[in-house]
Amino acid sequence: MSKTIIVSNRLPLKLSLDGDKITATPSVGGLATGMKSVHTDGDSLWIGWSGLTDDTLTTTQKEKVAEKIRQENCAAVALTQQEVDDFYLGFSNKTLWPLFHYFLEYAKFEKDQWETYQRVNERFAKVILEHTGEDDIIWVHDYQLLLVPQLVKEQRPKSTIGFFLHIPFPSFEIFRTFPWREEVLQGMLGADLLGFHTYDYERHFLSSVKRILRREVSFNKISYDNREIKVDSFPMGIDYDKFYSSAKQHMDKSLEERSELQQRLDSHKEISGDGSKLILSIDRMDYTKGIPNRIRAFEYFLEKYPEYIEKVRLIMLAVPSRSEVSTYKKLKQETDRLVGRINGKFSTVSWTPIWYYYRSMPFDNLIDLYTSADIALITPVRDGMNLVAKEYVATRVNGDGVLILSEMAGASKEMNEALLINPNNFEEFAATIKKAIEMPLEEQQSRIKILQKRLSRYNVERWANEFMKSLKETQQTKDIFVSK
Ligand code: ADQ
After folding, report:
1. What is the pLDDT of residues 333-377, one digit of tens each?
2. Residue of 321, 386, 459 with the most ligand 1 atoms within 8 Å of its CB, for mutation
3. Residue 319 CB–ligand 1 contact under 6 Å
4. Beta strands per DSSP E along 225-342
């Protein structure tokens, strides 16, 4: 019987070590949730890095970690600290991440890191080959593993391989600047099915294949090395029911059951009175998310419409991310400085314009934030999809609330009923915040209702199932193509 193999940089587990005692807690991220239906007991295996570096573990710890990982239907790819530095923090996050998000000025092209990236991708391929047979279906995820499809296909030509990119694929004019552009495209073309969040990313990819590799592309098919490769878009959804039902339970909580955070959020409405509004933003602290831009735009809004001083508050949750990388350190400093400046400039005795949290929060607190926010302000300068925008909509159980969403997020392609903005246009930004504040309840409800209907239908389980279905179809076409 064929198995399904999921491959991602990180395993869907968080391992913690206390001497020789190992505990594993499942990850709650979008990918882990989405793959739940695919990663069922018995006939599937998840391959990835455990998050623990091999050179810091004792032999007993290594054995225990391996056993724990096996019990969870997973297999680990071992990485040393040096490899994590050069492959993950280095090439993945200092080269591919900025390049694919149009931050050319941040992209570092270092030969040593590229070599480590190749070596680590080879190690992933080796672990895949050790754990799979000819008939297994392999689904590789994201930009850390762009070379894996080809490395596996070369060794096992009959295997069925899917690849999904969670970040944007940039336009040809950006991608052509990349020194290893041919190698990366060839690496990806080892797959039988290549999936992207949006049609635009798919189009950019096809254009690079045509112009850099000079391959024949017809509609969404590529002829390559005697194979036919399919390219398609699969917009990732969320676990809609989980967010909706958690929000519903939250609404039923009595005053005594409310969290400290919730009480603090409630206090804003009590102090600011009628017409007061909470605006929420949640992101990883990443330069692609447009955090400094958002703070400046909010400042401009308060200057332009001073009648909202003491009425409107921005709650900004930034989750620490890649804080070892210098561009992220600088971003954090800039954010701290901007929040300080604006709070210093506008605060009154009873009101501060921005409440800023730099930390991760438990799921229940995320729900507190989503359900309390009258407006969600999701304004990345570039984002593959953006699940936060979708989660906010799912928690609006009363149908009220307004989503302001950047056109530069992949999610904007499916969320036309949101207020879509170009985050670099401050006039539009400020006017849209005003429009959101003043939007009549009936209009809010009609927009949210349509969005909720779409999100509940195209949830994350459906995303995973549609990708798998399309990947299995390539198995059949492959047989026909080969026999021609
Ligand atoms: P991310 O850049 O991480 O993902 P996003 O899609 O917004 O961005 O997902 C973030 C997730 O983290 C959300 O599910 C959110 O609930 C969760 N989260 C945020 N803040 C949290 C907090 N404080 N505590 C706990 N959880 C928190 C990348 C791409 C995106 C793409 C996804 C999926 O950059 O564009 O949408 O992958 O493909």
Report:
1. 999 999 999 999 999 999 999 999 999 999 999 999 999 999 999
2. 386
3. yes
4. 227-233, 277-284, 312-319
Ligand 1 centroid distance, CA of 34 (Å): 13
The answer to whether residue 152 scores a pLDDT higher than 90 is: yes
- 151 contacts 193 by C-beta, under 8 angstroms: no
Do 306 and 400 touch, CB atoms closer than 8 A? no
**What's residue 480's pLDDT?**
55
Count the Cβ atoms, other than its own, within 10 Å of residue 136: 20
pLDDT in the model for residue 389: 98
Condensed to tens digits (0 to 9), the pLDDT of residues 85-109 reads 999 999 999 999 999 999 999 999 9
The answer to whether 17 and 58 have CB atoms below 8 angstroms apart is: no
Give the β-pairing of 375-378 and 354-358: unpaired
SS3 state of residue 7: strand
The angle at the Cα of 437, spanning 365 to 280, to the nearest 5 degrees, equals: 20
Between the CA of 252 and the centroid of ligand 1 the distance, in Å, is 27
The pLDDT of residue 484:
44
Task: List Cα–Cα distances, 53 to 63, 67, 74, 112, in angstroms.
Answer: 14, 16, 17, 20
What is the CA(468)–ligand 1 centre distance, in A?
Answer: 22
By CB atoms closer than 10 A (0-12, 13-18, 19+), residue 479 is exposed
Q: What share of the chain is helix, strand, coil (3-state, %, to 5)?
A: 50, 20, 30
**Does residue 386 line the site of ligand 1, with CB under 6 A?**
yes
Buried/exposed code over 334-367 (b: 16+ C-beta within 10 A; e: otherwise): ebeebbeebeeebeeeebbbbbbeeeeeeeebbb
Partnered with residue 24 across adjacent β-strands are 15
Q: How many CA atoms lie within 13 A of 32 on its CB side?
A: 14
User: Which are the contacts of 365, defined by CB distance < 8 A and separation ≥ 6?
Assistant: 259, 261
**Residue 142 pLDDT:** 97
**Which token pair is 372?**
């309390």
- Asked if residues 355 and 314 have their Cβ atoms less than 8 Å apart, the reply is yes
Ligand 1 in contact with 212 (CB < 6 A)? no
**What ligand 1 atom has the least distance to the C-alpha of 166?**
38
**Cα Rg, the chain, nearest whole Å:** 23
In this prediction the ipTM stands at: 0.96
391 CB within 6 A, ligand 1: yes
